[in-house]
Task: structure prediction
Amino acid sequence: MTRRPEPDPEVGAAVADAHRREWAFVLAATARVARDIDVAEECVQDAYVAALAAWSRQGIPRNPGAWLTTTARRRALDAQRRDRTLRAKLPLLIEPDSQAGPAGAPAAAGEAADPEEDVIADDRLRLVFTCCHPALAREAQVALTLRLVCGVTTAETAQAFLVTEPTMAARVTRAKKKISAARIPYRVPGPAELPDRLDAVLTVIHLLYTTGHTAPAGSDLVRGDLVERAIGLARMLRELMPDEPEVRGLLALLLLTDARRATRADADGRLLLLEEQDRSRWDRVAIDEGIGLVTGTLRGRYGPAGGAGLGRPGRFVLQAAIAAVHAEAASYGETDWPQLLQLYGELQKAWPTPVVALNRAVVHAMVAGPEAGLADIEGVERDGRLAGYRYLPAAKADLLRRLGRHQDAARAYRTALDLTDNDAERAFLVRRITEVSARPADGE
Amino acid sequence: MTEYLILIYERESGYAEGGPAVWEEVGKAHGRFAEQVGEKGGKIVGGNALQPTATATSIRSDVVTDGPFAETKEALGGYYLIEARDLDHALEIAKLCPAPFGGVEVRPIMNMSGT
Result:
């Protein structure tokens, strides 16, 4: 053990802050020099440890990210000089910048052969697109993004996804091996591939958010840290690709959904529906930012991402617009249901999935009555792809309840109950079953 | 450049039912594919079509049995060995590879000489 000076709490906080803010930048820039993700990760870890001592001695640098990057890159070069076997390994494929870069993305500096050059190329987009490469399984994309882009430890990542640490470690290792062995390039995809590739990145960030927002099991409805990470990633992407409507759409969607976080459950952790939530406690700052983003996007050119043609908004923009309609309504009763129905219609065109059809059915019921919605839901049921999706029987039960078909409603609520492990959601369903079971017989 | 194997997996019944017309059509498509690989900046190092799985013989622990190694709906029917810059380049090429009754799998070749 080396003797270290007493850690200064201010320095500790600065290092922690730099970890949260600069990790992706430092790792992305170091990977370019190290040409190996594992080596880059190690060097970046070392740089953060070194920062603790160095900043205590010399003071906190004006640009912590640049300090960390320079330190990590130097270590990477030293490691390469020391370790010849590194050069025998398959190096990370760094493509020249001229081949990369979507329209509108800030132009990165040229190939950084000199790690001590003043301007360090911002390689965060390369890192994100490599982590979310379609040749990697979705769960590997998610694990790599958390680990490499957010700097979250394997232990924490494992906890967030309810798997053991060795399982998560193996998942990350397999994915890194594939990047190297299959030669997945370290680059931002060209314009032709960009829509599909960007969609994968947005899907991963959204998945991180939803995993945090509704923990699949256990007692916490919101796993706050994952939610923060997802919003942070969406903000980073917005900064790096400011002209991509779907990127704005995703950030808006996350902000608008998260604005309701504090009201999703009551003091006892009981799940509250949109209609029961205290709208005065919604986060107005987040809502305003979200609405600003989505308004600009609906007015501006529409992105090709999400499979929609030019001139049509993509799925994230439309989902954000839907969330904005909810956020703008002063009360549940004042919700603009016809506008929602129209937006869901658009969404179904841009993103024809049974989940969208189910949501549209619920809105259809608000516009045209529960019977119309129920007919739609039965259509989704016949489609079969949502078998096992707990929100289908839950939505169906709700419409049956409103039609006074209490026995049918109770049966559907029980089906939903069998499909969920989330304690807050289970409590809600049990409450509903008790309510409808206490009502008079069907048709009353 | 890295070498990749493009494995073509298809339902054999597609060809059995389609007859000579399908054979001719797919054969032409493979001819076009060979030209396209060069245009894309890749290179075909080798490749062949295989006889159907009915002609396959498998050996496992010295026991010889008739039939393919694994029974699947879509069987390995042919392959190309190509050279490409990276996986994205290889996938761009593989997307052009005809496989009307199935799809293709892309596998990097393990480099044994570099170690």
Notes: Residues 1-86 of chain A form a domain with the Rna Polymerase Sigma Factor; Chain: A fold (CATH 1.10.1740.10). The interface with chain B takes residues 88, 90, 93, 95, 133, 135, 181-185, 187, 189, 193 of chain A (CB under 8 Å). The CA atoms of residues 43 and 72 of chain A lie 5 Å apart. Residues 98-117, 300-309 of chain A have pLDDT under 50 and may be disordered.
